[in-house]
Amino acid sequence: QVQLVESGGGSVQAGGSLRLSCAGSGLRYSTYSMAWFRQAPGKEREGVAGSSGGSTSVADSVKGRFTISRDNPKNTLYLQMNSLKPEDTAMYYCAARMVWGLRLTADAYRYWGQGTQVTVSS
Description:
By secondary structure, the protein is mostly beta strands.
């Protein structure tokens, strides 16, 4: 049974940083594409960053501020978020799929965590 558990969310002021983690069980990260998504109240789930086969991508809205990385032996995915803005406030989810490719669309991912809340105040 695949399980993904996010951690590291919290409340910060604009300009601050947070590092999110996603610990997985029941899967081997090295064979999965992984991604971070976020969803703000009243908005659709948005792809933030993806990691697949040694390649990464980030959405334009966070480019230069967010970095995705992974530690496959530890089955952990990370999202380093710097220079946070109030518009980054959302629930952040990690997701996994057993298909290669850097897709950042929610329907492409089969496995999801429960999310961790990030709140950025101005």
